[in-house]
Amino acid sequence: MNKQAVKVVGALVATFAAGAVQAAASAAYLPGCTLDSYAITKAAPAGTTPQTLPGNLVINSTGCYGVKAMGNNNPASVTVDNNLGYLNDGLLNGEGNLIPFNYFITQSQLQDLNPNDVGARDPGWVELGRITNASALNSAGSATMVADSIKTSTGTLNLGSILSFTESAAPITSGGSRAGTWTLSLDANIVNVLKNNGLFQRNNFDQLAFVVKASDKWAVYDFDFTKLPAGMFDLTQPYSLSGTWNLNDFKNDPTKPDQGLSFLGVWARDPVLSQPTNVPEPGVLALFGAGLLGMAAARRRRQSK
């Protein structure tokens, strides 16, 4: 993916309209997902505290999936193996068939990442980590993501060594609305860590997604940074991000309080469009630099799983 060097425009004030597809109220009420359920409001270079975006810019998610009735389809039960973005390795890569593997991407964005398969089949999603015990977020508390790992030729790289994610909840409103803030922080030394693990290449993650489960429903909220207007960020440096969230999509009835959060997964997508030949080491990871997320990523093709 080609980078475009752009600078923060201090006077830019823009918001992305929150769309919604609301189901009719019924005993089996399932609301549609709304784009303002997750939003970005702050950013700063890696290693520093995110600051409010110029002009109090609020960037809502650019796409969403759901809300879905869970039934026997629990997204929290789908785990990753190598975590290299292979088709059928992890929820957003199509494992379990709970969400189409190409829901947030086009056919042309599929990649040839897995040497055991032929052709461009891989969606490229990497799970950064998950919050599996979110009870604190239902009572004005906070919860920290347990970071995932990525397989390398010499072992594994724990993503917790270079990034962290925390979500906090505000007190529940009198009407039963649940909401709060989130922060995704990057280590200032992330580039060197990736290089030292043989994972750094000049490629970028281009999407950030949140998998949300509340009671018996779930949904996915995606930020596609290629869809954001240019002129906001200098894409040559990594960024930490912060924003807001709410559970207004999760109700048993439109007149009743939001359901309680029980699981959150955090994902990013590696948009490698071509692979070098005869490179023995896999790569995958990134430093935030594409779009607002911008993780200047690393992935080299594996010889074997």
Structure described in brief:
By secondary structure, this protein is mainly β.
Number of domains: 1
Which structural class should the secondary elements be placed in? mainly beta
Question: From the alpha-carbon coordinates, what is the Rg to the nearest angstrom?
Answer: 19 Å
Mean pLDDT: 78
Indicate the overall shape: globular
Strand segment tally: 17
Instruction: State the end-to-end CA separation.
Output: 25 Å
Tally of separate helices: 1
Give the SSE order as H and E letters.
EEEEEEEEEEEHEEEEEE
Beta content: 25-35%
Percent of residues in helical segments? under 10%
What's the main sheet like?
A: 7 strands, antiparallel
Name the poorly predicted regions: 1-27, 273-305
Can you walk through the features of this model?
The chain is mainly β and 305 residues long. Helices cover 2% and strands 30% of the residues. The strands form four sheets. Strands 1, 2, 3, 6, 10, 11 and 15 form a seven-stranded antiparallel beta sheet that branches. Strands 4-14-13-16-5-7 form a six-stranded antiparallel beta sheet, with no helix packed on it. A two-stranded antiparallel sheet has the order 8-9. The longest helix is centred in the middle third of the chain and has 7 residues. The protein is globular and about 50 Å long.
